[in-house]
Design goal:
It is a single chain. With 138 residues, this protein is mainly alpha-helical. Helices cover 42% and strands 0% of the residues. The chain contains 4 helices and no strands. Helix 2 crosses helix 4. The longest helix is centred in the first third of the chain and has 18 residues. The protein is extended, with a radius of gyration of 21 Å.
Length: 138
């Protein structure tokens, strides 16, 4: 969809919904002052180290590569400055009722996974510190 057409359609929807409630609405896109969120792009070397460390903790069979998705993630701003990798810790557990995604109003976290996430972060930090050199980040 053409961006201009999108903006026009978006404005029509917002103003129309406001009028339904006897209100008015304005739409202002501030691209220069508030830029769009960049894509979240993992550094290949950091990703490989994170995957290696994670597989030692949870086993290779318990690691899944998340599918590409078009949602935004503000972690992308960090990745523009520092090489990194966005890692998700799975929390699905049907027995405990942890079956809904993070942004669902029904989200419930199985807290038993929190030590696993902490262990992955700690092991990654130790591994990164052991393996890193100035050339690693260049």
């Amino acid at each position: 969809m053409d961006f201009h057409l999108f903006v026009t359609s978006f404005e029509q929807v917002i103003k129309g919904q406001a009028e339904v409630h006897r209100c008015s609405g304005e739409v202002e896109f501030c691209g220069n002052e508030h830029p769009t969120i960049p894509p979240t792009t993992n550094d290949v070397r950091i990703y490989q180290l994170a995957r290696q460390v994670s597989s030692k903790i949870v086993g290779e069979d318990n690691i899944e590569l998340a599918p590409l998705f078009t949602g935004s993630e503000d972690f992308a701003f960090y990745l523009e400055k520092v090489p990194g990798s966005f890692v998700l810790v799975g929390t699905r557990n049907e027995k405990s009722g942890s079956i809904h995604p993070a942004h669902s109003p029904y989200f419930f976290i199985d807290e038993d996974v929190l030590p696993i996430g902490a262990a992955i972060h700690a092991a990654f930090a130790l591994s990164f510190n052991s393996y890193s050199t100035n050339s690693f980040l260049l």
